[in-house]
Design brief:
- With 186 residues, the chain is α/β, with parallel strands linked by helices.
- It has one domain (3-184): 3-Layer(aba) Sandwich (Rossmann fold).
- 52% of the residues lie in helices and 16% in strands.
- It contains eight helices and five strands.
- It has a five-stranded parallel beta sheet with strand order 2-3-1-4-5.
- Helix 1 packs across helix 8 and helix 2 (34-44) packs antiparallel against helix 3 (48-66).
- The longest helix is centred in the N-terminal third of the chain and has 19 residues, at 48-66.
- It is globular.
Length: 186
């Protein structure tokens, strides 16, 4: 059966890097959120049109992939728990996959702020996410969301059956990927 693994958490928590390791372990394809953001940002900046097209591209990719004969997909992004439109987008995304009989897995990552600030500057992150290369701006955005956004769930808030929350502050990405693989038998 095809699988869809949704990895979410705050900025620089390691979503993409864990996704890369999980992809290498399982053969699942990785689609991280910056694959669409960094495609469109040079053309539109961080404008409403860029975000509209980003959501449109993602939906089309999800629709196509959910009907393919691929083993499965890993998708990574921030989930803004305090924004209803984000909840709606996550539900829409999951419905695309569940309507095709795809098994859905939620993986929530959290890490200490100090570790996230270190990870915000890693070579791997900067190589794969061009819009994060302005470290000062990226760090400022990361810090500003501490006061005005909720980027991790409250205990009991996520009710999906296949859900795993990992504090990956002290773990390497490969170790976290192995935990996910072992927990969900993927």
């Amino acid at each position: 059966m095809e699988k869809f693994v949704f990895i979410f958490g705050p900025q620089a928590v390691g979503k993409m890097t864990v996704g890369q390791e999980l992809s290498a372990l399982t053969g699942l394809k990785l689609f991280h959120n910056h694959m669409t953001i960094d495609l469109l940002e040079p053309l539109y900046g961080f404008s409403p049109e860029m975000w509209r097209l980003t959501h449109l591209f993602r939906r089309e990719i999800f629709q196509s992939f959910s009907k393919s004969d691929q083993y499965g997909l890993i998708f990574t992004k921030i989930w803004y728990f305090d924004q209803e439109e984000d909840w709606n987008e996550i539900e829409y995304m999951c419905n695309i996959f569940s309507s095709q009989g795809v098994e859905i897995y939620f993986v929530e990552l959290e890490a200490d702020l100090e570790e996230r600030l270190i990870r915000n500057k890693t070579t791997n992150r900067l190589e794969h996410k061009p819009t994060k290369r302005n470290i000062e701006e990226s760090e400022q955005h990361l810090l500003s969301t501490l006061d005005n956004r909720r980027l991790n769930s409250i205990k009991g808030e996520i009710k999906t059956k296949n859900y795993l929350r990992i504090n990956n502050t002290k773990f390497k990405a490969m170790e976290v990927a192995q935990m996910i693989k072992d927990e969900f038998y993927i």
